[in-house]
Specification:
single chain; about 90 residues; mainly beta; Metal Binding Protein, Guanine Nucleotide Exchange Factor, Chain A; 4-stranded antiparallel β-sheet; 3-stranded antiparallel β-sheet; globular
Length: about 90
């Protein structure tokens, strides 16, 4: 089962991830809510739309913008709507 790990802590775990461009997108119910803080950061992808970000917080340490999701993706990316992906040192083990 895929797991997202940061700071030696599992922050998401699900056997229902979607893989897009090599990234596992985890269902929102599979994340540990206490490890996520909303961020004001956004980016735009030409085919997926506008991404929103979370800061990942574990053990008092903050990894700014280490998780992202598409709240309202373009039609070609509808399968990842609301699902969360990771980068910036968050390890995903499948």
């Amino acid at each position: 089962m895929p797991k997202a790990i940061w700071n030696e802590t599992v922050i998401a775990e699900s056997d229902a991830t979607e893989i897009v461009e090599g990234n596992h997108y985890f269902p929102p119910e599979s994340i540990k809510q206490e490890c996520f803080q909303a961020s004001d950061t956004t980016t735009v992808c030409g085919w997926k739309g506008t991404a929103n970000y979370y800061d990942v917080v574990v053990g008092g340490q903050v990894n700014p913008g280490a998780a992202w999701y598409y709240a309202d993706p373009k039609p070609d990316a509808a399968n990842i709507k609301g699902k969360i992906a990771f980068w910036k040192g968050v390890r995903v083990e499948a």
